[in-house]
Amino acid sequence: xxxxxxxxxxxxxxxxxxxxxxxxxxxxxxxxxxxxxxxxxxxxxxxxxxxxxxxxxxxxxxxxxxxxxxxxxxxxxxxxxxxxxxxxxxxxxxxxxxxxxxxxxxxxxxxxxxxxxxxxxxxxxxxxxxxxxxxxxxxxxxxxxxxxxxxxxxxxxxxxxxxxxxxxxxxxxxxxxxxxxxxxxxxxxxxxxxxxxxxxxxxxxxxxxxxxxxxxxxxxxxxxxxxxxxxxxxxxxxxxxxxxxxxxxxxxxxxxxxxxxxxxxxxxxxxxxxxxxxxxxxxxxxxxxxxxxxxxxxxxxxxxxxxxxxxxxxxxxxxxxxxxxxxxxxxxxxxxxxxxxxxxxxxxxxxxxxxxxxxxxxxxxxxxxxxxxxxxxxxxxxxxxxxxxxxxxxxxxxxxxxxxxxxxxxxxxxxxxxxxxxxxxxxxxxxxxxxxxxxxxxxxxxxxxxxxxxxxxxxxxxxxxxxxxxxxxxxxxxxxxxxxxxxxxxxxxxxxxxxxxxxxxxxxxxxxxxxxxxxxxxxxxxxxxxxxxxxxxxxxxxxxxxxxxxxxxxxxxxxxxxxx
Length: 564
Ligand code: ADP
Prior knowledge:
This protein is α+β, with helices and mostly antiparallel strands. The chain has 5 domains: about 1-155, 2-Layer Sandwich (Beta-Lactamase); about 200-230, no CATH class; about 240-330, 2-Layer Sandwich (Beta-Lactamase); about 335-405, Helix Hairpins, CATH 1.10.287.130; about 410-560, Histidine kinase-like ATPase, C-terminal domain (Heat Shock Protein 90), CATH 3.30.565.10. Helix content is about 50%, strand content about 20%. The chain contains 16 helices and 17 strands. It has helices at about 1-55, 65-70, 105-115, 150-155, 160-190, 205-240, 260-265, 285-295, 335-370, 380-405, 420-430, 430-435, 455-470, 505, 520-525, 530-540, and strands at about 75-80, 85-90, 115-120, 125-135, 140-150, 245-250, 255, 300-305, 310-320, 320-330, 415-420, 440-445, 450-455, 480-485, 490-495, 545-550, 555-560. The strands form 4 sheets. The chain has a 5-stranded antiparallel beta sheet with strand order 2-1-5-4-3. Strands 7-6-10-9-8 form a 5-stranded antiparallel beta sheet. Helix 10 (about 380-405) runs parallel beside helix 16 (about 530-540). It is rod-shaped. The model has no long low-confidence stretch (mean pLDDT about 90). The protein binds adenosine-5'-diphosphate. Adenosine-5'-diphosphate (ADP) binds near residues 464, 500, 501 and 527.
């Protein structure tokens, strides 16, 4: 803007300067011209008067007078006879060589009207000769001429001065234009659009412009605020999503990537926007779904990244029937996949566990049916069938218990339960087994060890642990239950002096159907589900279970419940 103002002022000033120079030169020229004409006229009259006076005492028609006056060479004085013959010319010695002037305009006019005036341009047009003629009483005509320079010649002669004036004028114009442009633009530059106030505008003409800017500013601010609000909402929603969400443009460049996606892909840095997803190492396993989505096809894939099972769903984003990008949703299905695998394994195990006693029962019954068993052996076979069916019943009961615990939607009522009395009930229920196995049992601890829980489940926990402590014990061994209460915990310890568990098996005893010594466990009626039920029930009560065991010495199981 400043440049434009500067150029306008400079050009205008230069134009004004030029026009002024032309005007001044032309005016001067016209004034010179008038003065010159006046001068020639006066000089002609004066010299004509001189000639007239000389005619009274001389018969040379005034030539003698003309010779006698000192004449300036800037004027040409000519005496012309009535027939047009030049008889005197102050600039030409041999007047006889001069052509006849009878056709000259000023001469003809002077003859008829006493005075004659005319002017003629030179061949180069650079000068104009002005002629003034006066008729004398003897019929002769005295004529004076002078040269007048044309405008261009005058300008040419004054070129030096004009150039000097123009240069100085141009310099002054440039300085002034610069200064003026700066002064015009300065108040505009000083207006702040941030703290904009219409009162501060010194140029009236700019008011509509600033009003428009002001209203547009308000609109932009509103749009910006609403866009920011939407962005915040989007970030809040996507940031708290458990699913990973990645938005891509049509070149597979990441536009947005939420926190879940970053952690699932193990990216390790937060800002991946602007990077190509094809450069992310762990995304390589689902590149095909991305390229498919960018071709306009919805694609789903289950893949494994960083030991997690992920379900990747890629969908194209279409605008005007064209793919503008893709949305990728990543769902962590590790738990579901593990649960499915566990369920499959469980079903296989259950079938296997049920099949074994059923095969035995069916085998024994077939032998009896076909008469291959002697009558005296029948009670023994019947006892084996009884044992196998008991095992089967135990197994089915344990499976039912486990599936009841697995059913998350089943509502249990939590009530204050006294662990001492529950443990006492358990010991009473196991009295016979303990006696049979020659195991001494004891209950030591606080009689006021109360927690909030489901009574039957707590009974089951303590029963299973004590049952194991008796089952996997040695003849004459012991099982001790210790109860302890702290400010916020209720602790129950079941310690036995039994066979113990090998170190490498300790972590696996809570797995379903896991048994350290399969044949021994079966022999003593174990199903391999007891500790799984215990673990499940403890975690249902928000408790912790710890197990310590030394092979050949004994096992100690500790359960910590949050107390009331
Ligand atoms: P089971 O019905 O076979 O006893 P559990 O789930 O209760 O199944 O126990 C899993 C395995 O852990 C048992 O087969 C046994 O080998 C081992 N075990 C559990 N408790 C004890 C213990 N107190 N002493 C030694 N081994 C134990």
